[in-house]
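Researcher: Next sequence.
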Amino acid sequence: MKNITVLITALIFGITSCKTAQQSVEEMEENTAAVVDGKDAITGLFLDENLKFVQAHCTGCHSSKLISMNRFTREGWKEKIVWMQQTQKLWDLGEAEPLVLDYLAKYYAPEERSLRRQPLEVKEWYELN
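Model: Next structure:
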């Protein structure tokens, strides 16, 4: 009996997640009405014409924070999508896949940054005693 309850709960949760992920474009646009610093106030993701596809295919199953805390090349994002399809039951993104990849590669690509600080600029040297 306990196993059946767990199974039913998992099925209900799964159906709810997928329904959320496949909301209509109009509903997604309503959800991005509030803007803060060029980002959607709800998800924290950058505003762009392809954001609605990212919302529809990504944030229905996991937090937008999982997107914004990662940095991959376009090929790296493609590998993550394939991994999710093979192991996490992500559906085929169809014609939206290139648009999702365009968005992710544009805003969440690896950043070039130095791990070391810039050398100090010394204007005058003095001798230590």
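Model: Helices lie at 2-21, 25-31, 51-57, 64-68, 74-87, 97-107. The first strand starts at residue 35 and ends at 36.
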